[in-house]
Amino acid sequence: MAVKAILWDVDGTLLDFAAAEKAAVQKLFIEFGLGECTDGMVARYSSISGGYWKRLERGEITKAEVLVGRYRDFFSELGIDPALAEPFNARYQVALGDTVAYRDDSLEIVKALHGRVKQYVVSNGTVIAQTKKLERSHLGEWMDGIFLSEQLGAEKPSPRFFEQVFAALPDIPKEDMLIVGDSLTSDMQGGLNAGVPTCWYNPQSLPRPADMAIAFEIQNLQQIYELL
Description:
By secondary structure, the protein is an alpha/beta fold. The chain contains nine helices and six strands, in the order βαααααβαβααβαββ.
């Protein structure tokens, strides 16, 4: 295929989301006077949060319910007042952009591809968090456009998300796009739902689902050059 545009996922693909998440949660525990947040506690929070995001992808709950509900559940387990969930999340959205950790020299890759193919961000992350991340990482400077679910009113993997991407890029057939992301349920399923060729970023070499027709699979972002 002749790739004319790459649709990049951000969290877990271009940037190390786990590192940013851990740093933000541990920092805010101190800021809110909640004591130490151990690595084990961060792992438990991440698990709860991941479950909420999966429910969002299935259309079962809203983004607002994800952002606050995960902290209510987490705090309740720890015996912390769940009323802190809302202000904690508000600060978390800002703090999440404080830690920038690239995956596989992603910034240099995006720079190298600039002008060779069009590049766009497609993300379910909040506007506040993603705007800060893209600015501080300088990834946003090399993108031809940014599509955030909060602004589109639809989440990946919904076809409604991608329909708005297609409408904004009428000169690029969706068959000439390539969505690159780490999430099977959001990125890969989203591409399949929308008829966009998919590239699964799978650095851990996890088993590929037999029932999912993924076009390409890479373990390192440097392999993207081989697909162009």
